[in-house]
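Notes from the 1:1 (GR / supervisor)

We went over the backlog. Supervisor wanted to see one worked example end to end before approving the batch request, so GR pasted a single chain during the call. The sequence is below; no edits were made to it. Supervisor asked that the structure be written out right there so they could see what the output format looks like.
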Amino acid sequence: MADFDAIYQDETDPEENIEETHVTLVPDPIVVRGAGNMTVFGLSNRFNDEFPPGLQSRVAPEEYQATVARINSVLKKTLPVNVKWLFCGCMCCCCTLGCSLWPVICLSKRTQHSLNKLLEWENSRLYNKLGLRWRLTKQHCDSSSMMEYVLLIEYIPKIPIYRPD
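Structure output shown during the call:
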């Protein structure tokens, strides 16, 4: 009973308990910003189709430009309608106590949903097989505190599978 309060030194070597850990370095994601002249609720009317150097030897430039062209075609179809509704909503905003802006918000969400569906299809068709993932995300603008939607191209780390012998 006298040994109850005694403190003993741990006799195991701490290096024996450390398992091998594998660290996978993943490059920073590539950001593709809007390159259009019009922005509605943070969504630009087109994205830059210039091939980023970070994708060199990962994706063919033609495939990248085809993906951006599909994204820009969705924006080309939907954003002019959003601008018309925004203009009408601003004209009637005082009379409707701001309720006339709801259609623009709903159309903007629908555009975002369409772009996300397109990016999911592109990812499942090609980019996930290449270890990449495209996403539409919000980021702060460089010059102000406003938010904008950008295309984020992330690298998917390949996790080694542990197989015991």
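Supervisor's comment: Residues 61-91 form the longest helix (31 residues).
Batch request approved.
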